[in-house]
Write a structure and sequence with these properties.
Number of strands of chain A: 3
Protein name (chains A, B): DNA-binding MarR family transcriptional regulator
CATH topology of one domain in chain A: Arc Repressor Mutant, subunit A
CATH architecture of one domain in chain A: Orthogonal Bundle
Order of helices and strands of chain A: HHEHHEEHH
Strand content of chain A: 5-15%
Shape of chain A: globular
CATH class of one domain in chain A: Mainly Alpha
Oligomer: homodimer
Keywords (chains A, B): DNA-binding
InterPro entries (chains A, B): HTH_MarR-typ (IPR000835), MarR/SlyA-like (IPR039422), WH-like_DNA-bd_sf (IPR036388), WH_DNA-bd_sf (IPR036390)
GO molecular function (chains A, B): DNA binding; DNA-binding transcription factor activity
CATH superfamily of one domain in chain A: Winged helix-like DNA-binding domain superfamily/Winged helix DNA-binding domain
Helix content of chain A: 55-70%
Pfam family, one (chains A, B): MarR_2
DNA sequence: TATTGTTATACTCTATAACTATA
DNA sequence: TATAGTTATAGAGTATAACAATA
């Protein structure tokens, strides 16, 4: 089932290479929009409902300070706004703007284009198998449904009793 | 064929997340050996034949200065040695040691273990489909056969008239 | 005292550019 | 002048820790 004897033929290693390549490609496409790949998870999450920053961080599986940066950048592009919560003045609720929704849509189109290029050599059966297989792997490994992956430890499934 | 409407469901994005996760897992396993994932490509390449540093850089698709660092680290672990070329004293031929071969073997075993964990939820048909599909994608995109992926542009085959 | 968001800082990975020693 | 390797530096990505305002 795993016929390779070498690291470079392993799935672990191959995924790393492909991930780097795919992210790079997508980032290039996204650049003209003023976005980077990780921003997309935020936009798509907020498209569903406004969210506080910590909840956001937890959901996409990154640390809060990273969220601050991403929100700064997205706010600079007019894709969202932070609204102080009048009930709890520590909180800021993050809301997507119409511009943000438009960006998310454009980004989704670009991602689809990249996908087509990546899958160029596969027939639709193979492509589907890869897609579904990887989705299953991601689910089994507990990757956040949406959002960028936690780099290392971080058990996002069990954030503990906090909040 | 690409039924998703969102970035976060795209293959491009998914590969990025999975790549990060897989690389992190593998790095954790490798750490006790004093290795990191990228070192493995070097070791496996050298296992075939000694090589000069520039050739090495080109083959695995990274910039020469990165090779210097990696070789320093691998030499510190006793995995290889740099031998000055007596014909052309600018060159250093890099040779793997027995220790290096042993490390490469251990690393391959660890990679295999990680693969098994990653593919835990897939039956062997699906696992094979994913493996073969991804290998095909990698080939189609021109990833270096062995070694870590070039981050972005970098046409290592044609460095151009610059310098 | 705990929590929300922020800033400051550090570490990894990778790249470019300037430098050395040879050729 | 060109090439092999090296060093110095920079940028993107992420994380931890200390801090301010508020609860």
């Amino acid at each position: 089932m795993q016929p390779q004897e070498s690291v470079t033929e392993s799935l672990a290693f191959l995924l790393g290479k492909l991930g780097q390549m795919a992210t790079g490609r997508f980032a290039d496409r996204l650049a003209p929009l003023g976005l980077r790949p990780r921003h997309c998870a935020v936009l798509e999450l907020l498209a569903t409902a406004p969210l506080g920053q910590l909840a956001l961080a937890q959901t996409i599986g990154v640390t809060p300070s990273v969220v601050v940066d991403m929100l700064d950048e997205l706010e600079a592009v007019g894709a969202l706004r932070r609204v102080r919560d009048s009930t709890d003045r520590r909180r800021q609720v993050v809301e997507i703007t119409d511009g943000g929704r438009a960006l998310a849509l454009s980004a989704a189109r670009l991602a689809k284009q990249v996908d087509i290029e990546l899958l160029r050599e596969l027939d639709s059966t193979q492509a589907t198998a890869v897609r579904e297989g990887l989705a299953r792997v991601a689910a089994a490994q507990g990757l956040p449904v949406t959002g960028s992956a936690p780099t290392r430890n971080a058990a996002p499934t069990d954030p503990g009793p906090a909040t």
